[in-house]
Structures are given as C-alpha cells and as structure tokens.
Amino acid sequence: MTNSIEELEKADVILVAGSNTTGMHPVIASTIKRAVRSGKTKVVVVDPRKIELVNHAELWLRPKPGTDVAWLNGLMHVIINEDLHAKGYIAERTEGFEDLKQAVSTYSPERVEEISGIPKADLIEAARLYAKAPAASIIYAMGITQHINGTDGVKSVANLAMLCGNVGIEGGGVNPLRGQNNVQGACDMGGLPNVFSGYQPVTSKEVREKMGRAWGVESLPEKPGLTIVEIVDGAVKGDIKAMYIMGENPVVSDPDSHHVRRGLNSLDFLVVQDIFLNRTARLADVVLPACCFAEKDGTFTNTERRVQLVRKAVEPPGDARPDWEILCDLARHMGYPMSYPNASAIFDEIASLTPSYAGMDYARLADGGLQWPCPSKDHPGTKYLHKDGFARGKGLFHGIEWISPAEGTDEKYPFLLTTGRVLYQYHTGTMSRRSVALNERYPECLVEINEEDAERLGIKSGDKIRVSSRRGRIEATASVGDSVDLGTIFIPFHFAEVPVNELTIAALDPIAKIPEFKVCAVRVEMVGEE
Amino acid sequence: MDKDIITLTVHGKDFLGKVQGRKGQTVLEVLRDNHIHVPTLCYHPKMPPYGGCRLCIVEIENMRGLPPSCTTPAVDGMVVHTHTDRVFQVRKSVLELLLAYGDHNCLLCEQTGNCELQDLVYEHGIEKIRFKSDYKSKPLDDSNSMIVRDPNKCVLCGRCVRACLEVQVNGVIDVALRGSDSCISTFNGMSLKDSNCVFCGECVSVCPTGALTFKQARFKGRPWELKKVQTTCTYCGVGCQMELNIKDNEIVKVTSSHEIRGPNVGNLCIKGRFGYDWVKHPDRLKTPLIREEGIFREASWEEALSLIAQRFENIRVKSGPDSIAFFTSARCTNEENYIMSKFARAVIGTNNIDHCARL
Description:
The complex is a heterodimer of chains A (530) and B (359).
Chain A lengths: L12 E5 L3 H4 L1 H12 L4 E5 L12 E3 L6 H14 L5 H7 E2 L1 H8 L4 H8 L3 H13 L3 E5 L1 H4 L4 H14 L10 E3 L6 H6 L6 E2 L3 E2 L3 H11 L12 H10 L4 E5 L3 H4 L3 H10 L2 E6 L11 E4 L8 E4 L4 E5 L12 H11 L9 H11 L8 H4 L4 E2 L23 E2 L18 E6 L15 H6 L4 E5 H7 L6 E5 L4 E9 L6 E5 L27 E7 L4
Parallel strand pairs in A: 1-2, 1-5, 2-3, 4-15, 5-6, 9-10, 10-11, 16-20, 17-19
Antiparallel strand pairs in A: 7-8, 12-13, 13-14, 16-21, 17-20, 18-19, 18-21
Helix pairs in contact in A: 3-6, 3-7, 3-9, 6-7, 12-14
Chain B lengths: L4 E7 L4 E7 L4 H7 L25 E2 L18 E3 L3 H16 L15 H8 L23 E3 L9 H9 L5 E4 L6 E4 L15 H5 L5 E3 L12 E6 L8 E7 L2 E6 L14 H5 L14 E4 L2 E4 L2 H19 L4 E4 L6 H15 L4 E2 L5
Parallel strand pairs in B: 1-4, 14-15
Antiparallel strand pairs in B: 1-2, 3-4, 5-8, 6-7, 9-10, 10-11, 12-13
C-alpha cells in the first residue's frame, strides 16, 4: 500500500477493485464500513462477484472477468473528456500524459460496455465520483493482478490514481492488499530471483560487492534467477535437480497442479521444511519440522509496510525448530559459518544492509512497529509514499491497450471459472482446515454458480457437480445464488481434495509471471452425466 | 491560551481540585483523562457513549438530577461530585437491580476474576440483594464452537450491540422486546450459527460480564493464570496485533485491545480470533523424516542435515549452483526469509529463489 490502513477513514471515495475485502481482509473491511457509516466516505465496488461490500457501496460495477484494463481506461476516458483530471498535478509531478490520453481515447463508455458489460451510465457515474473526490483511495487485490495482463492492470490503476492527483496525499493512494501475513516481508527480504533485501538488484556490481563483503564470500551470482513457475518448468525439463521448499505448498497453490507434481517428481532431491506433512511435503526426500508463528521470535511486514514483532508464546512440538535455525545449521554442515544468538541479531544484520529498514531494531518495533522506508534511527517511519515526489522523479503514465484473457469460452467449455478464497479458510488450508471452528463454518468446497445457469442445467444447492477444463476435472458441491454473474463460476482453492488448480491455466503475465487464476474456460455438469 | 481548554472542579473519591479538558469532551472523558475514577458499565472507549447503565452518574452543581457523565458535555467551570452519598446509593441500587434480574453466580461463571460487574459489586460493598424478583432462567445459545451466549448473565449494557454495529459494522444483534423481557437478539431470535454472524468475536471482547464467552477457552484457565503474549497474526496481510493467552504451554484464547498500538485497533476476525487450534494439532511434524524405499522414517537432525548437505554439495559440483532452487515463504518471518536468501546466494551461489507472492 502506498498509504496506511487508518487513512481509509480519511478518504472521500474508496474504489475497491478485485478485492473481496470482507472475506480476505475483514479487519480492513470493517475500517472501510466504519468510514461509510460515518457519512464521510463513499465506496465504489468493481467486482464480477456480488461481494458483501456491495451492500455498503454507493455504486457497484460488475465487469466480465479479465476486462480490468478496459474499464479502467474507460474511467480515464470519461475523466479526461469531462475535464476532471488534476491538471496542475499532472504538469508538475508526472510525464507521459499525452501517451495515456491517446491510449484511452478509444475507450468510450459505449465500447467499454461492449467489452466489460458495465453499463455506460454507471461507468460515467463512477468516473465522476472518483475524480471529484478531494482524496480518493484505490484498494485492489488479486482480482486485478492474477491475469496474463496483471502488470497492465496495476499500471492502469496507477494511471488512474495519478490522473486525479491521488498519489502522495493522505487518504489517497494505490493500495494493494497483500493476502499473506508476510508476503510483503518475503519480497522485502530478497525472496525474489532478481533482488537482494530492500529490492537491491542482483545485477548491480556495487550491491553484490556490498552483500559479498557482509556475507564473507568472494562473489555472488549476478544473473537473475528463475521465478516459481519457471523453476517448476526447469524441474520438468531436468535443468533443476534439487529444491528446498520452506513453508510453501505449491502442489495445491500453484497453477496446473499436474505439471507441478511432475516437476517435483522429476527432481533428484527435494527438501521440504514445514509445520505439517502437506501435499508437497509428501513428495519430499527429506522433511524438516519447523516452528509455527507462536513458537518463535521474529518480524512480519504487513500490507501497509509496517514491520511488527512476532513473539514466542509456546514451546514447539517435539524436535521442531525455527526455520532460521535449521538453515543456519545446514549452512554450517556445508562449511559456511552462519550463526546468530537470536532473531533480533539477524534483524540487525538486515537493517545494516537494507536502506529502507536501516532505522529499525527490535526495541523500536516493540510499540506499534514502523513503516518503511525508515532510513535512520531517528526516522519515524513513512505513513504514505511519494509525498514529495516519486522514486524515479516524475510519475510515468503508461498508455495501455486491453487484451483479452488467454482462454475464452467456447461451445465445449462455456463457463468462465474464477478462483479465490473465502473468509473461513486460508490459502491451501494446511492450518485453517485443522481448526474446528473454521471448519464448522465452511467445511467443504462450494462451487458458486448463478441461479439462472443452475436452473438451466438442473442444478440445486447441495448437488454434486463436475467442473472440467482442458487440463483436468474436479467434483464438488454446488452453491446456487446471485454471488456470481451468468456464465461465471467461482471455486475457492483451499481444499486439497478439490484441487481447483487442476483446472486453472499456467498462462503467465510476461513481466510479473503471475498466473491467470481469475479466468479460464470450463464446463459444468451434474455428476453422473457425461 | 488555547481557547479549547476548559477547567472543571472535581470532588472525587480520592481527589479534590481542578482538572483540564478540551471543548467537545464529555464529563467522563475529562475525568478519565485525568485518572479520576468513575464506575462505568455500558461505556466503552471504542464506541460512542450510550448512557444506558446509569452507573457513571455524578452530581454537577447547578444541574438538576444525577446526569450520566458519559453523555453530559463538559463545560468550562463545571463543579462535579463523583462520589457523594446520594450518587453512591443510587449506583448501589442499580447494581442490586441488575443482580436481581439475572443469574449471577460467580462460582459457576467463566469470567470470574475478569468481570466488570463482579468488580463493581465488590467496589460498592454489596453483600445481599434487597430486591426480590421472579426471575426465570432463559435458555443459552450454545449452537457453535466459538461463542456461548448466556442471557442470564447479561446486564443489557448494549456494548455487544454497538460493537457489532459501530465497530465491525455487521449489525447482527440488537436489543429486542421491552421491560423485563428485554434481551439481546439476532434477527428473528435465531441462534448465532444460523444468523448472519461472521464470528469476529468483537462482542465477546467487549462484554463486561460472563454473558458472552469464548467457548474454546472455557474451563481451560482462570484469568489470573493466563500469560498474555503480544504478537502479530499469522493469517492475512493486515498484521493485526493480538495477545495469545497461554496456560501450560497451550494457547487458551486470543484477545486484543484498542490500547495495543496496531493496524487493527483491537479488532480481529474469525481466523485470528478462533483459528489457532491447529498449533497443537497431533499432525504437527515433530521430527525430521527421511524417505527410504518410498516411505518416511524418523531421523535425527544431525542425520537429516548431513544428508541434505552432502546431496546439495554433490549436485552443485556436478550440475552447477543454478541446478538448485529455493522456495522461500510468505508465511515465515523476515529473518527467515533473509536467511534463506543468504543461504541460496552465499552458500549455494544461485539466485533461484522465489515464493508465492503471485498466488
């Protein structure tokens, strides 16, 4: 998030796009609902599903899945046409406006209605609401990013925010909600193939030398590594011989599970370090037992860049150890001296090598945490980014054309499948499915299908149905209602026994390499029919 | 001088003198900011004042009656008496009426030791209840595994109703019926399980008595036996600050508070609040496992780590460092992610490291 969670109560308009906030980030959703209740804030929801926030929204736009760039361009088309853009801000703080203007000029409300199904009048009203607000925030999540043009979707969101002068102000911003406790931190720490901690590029000689000195090695690899999906491809091809998987369950979470299993089975050697023997761990040669969050000290970085302490509360079961201790021990077994007295000492090393974390230590984090960038010990942390300018100087507009999803419907596969999560379960369910309370609320995988489609196919809630795509098929229970639009179905991916990623397509965004989980073509039928 | 500053004269229990507040504050807020004790029951700092319980009544010179301090705006020059005999006797009667219209047996109550009603009754020196009542016991809502609702211990302070509506903005419950039939009810009196409750537990966290309790925690430890450890929730990316309540190396319940600084200002959701039992699940991995002829056998750390070190070294020498790849984790701590990045790059010599940020 460029801005902070508490600032949502200061926004005049919040545009929520591709985020089922009440389900995935319930505490942020409550903040949004309080803002609406106070009378200050209006919410515009853009989502193919009728999510709960729709009940609190001024306006709900329901695009067809995979048409985000089109409706975002449409909003900007209307804003420029009606002269509602922030001309002073654009002149002073941005460049590339003419490119943008040119690109969105063809996205008239009529054309956008044709592409996305959003009625022209609603698009215009949404554009006016967003553009006229003194401070407007955009909240988005995987609904925008999990597409073959996910990067384009994010750039379009940024275009819209800059067009109305909403970046670098309190209550505004471009605010992706991160789905996992420390996905922000894993990125910040260099858990990516192209960067060290703090997004310092591996291609920079200067950075490599700095890290090499600190780590006591003569050289560090300069070629960026492979991303998750490329690693799996590499394993299938035989280029990747060994893998070490810590706290991930790619067999359930990654697209095209069949392909993932084939990749992991092709390895000469697989190590999995986890808290449960999940589906991925079952394929391992060696499994190492790790501590869970309640059994160790450390820090997580939340979606608003806030670094907060994790504190040990209970002893781990059996011989389980914190992940960092295991890795340090393994390093020593490989002849590399790596040891720390505690997690705090590791954090001090991180701070010494990572400019955005440089001012942090455990004592400073103890009360309320700190938001990066926090470059020095006397720096209070950063509530919102880009206040006085963008990292690259001027904010750059990108003129972007909409492209259609990788896979469209046809006679054989007439439904669009979109995947996601539900409030009561979490990711691959390794933890949440072992919780009595959570399973009482949502015990089995439900396929959401529109009531008209269901009636046509003779499907009732509770019926067992089969969903097939070009890659696989699964069986699950139908839930008939109005949460999804005609021609669309929704399936959560929490349930290993209903592995929806057998159906999804491993089509990737060319830049971010994010898979298109939000759109693929499927067929729906009652079990027993062929 | 700041023209928003106001001065009140207070005759308190252990205090006599002038205090300062700001225009727009209530009398109670000024008193609380100055650490002057006034008993309250329906008041909660997370919610707008309600003025329902009449325990925070005070005497204010030149004002009629006994105004509730929680809803009375503070005005410059006010003279406030918080503990006159008249005020004290009314509070005592209010408490006795609450006790008469309910079933408040502390021996049978989970909240003993953490009950605001119990504390207030003690503070007011109540030994017996002067009112006779024909109170008839009402049925419990024990329909789910998370929240037990016992209307017999409810004092109708309305905190749960306001927490649900004003804090979480779900509006699942409200006060129903009139007079002595009044009760907190879901729509049409459904059980919580069948209502549109999403089980955030906010109502339980603000309940001043044992009317709402966390079912998983019942009989697992008295309040004074629990050690609270503040930490960060392990589910989504909001980073809610929570307290794990520990007894005998087990998480008994999860609480939070608006007094803890954090992005959630004391709010939690069902996963953070109730989804912790997997920590003690028997399926947890407890020892390293090595696959031999297709099946896992238990191994020591030394054996497992030596094997990994040897295999990685062989593969690195034979096929190069880029034939090894690492999946680090959005679930683990910063320190662990940093260490894995260091391990991949400095020990093995590859940039093949990624995680599920895109999933």
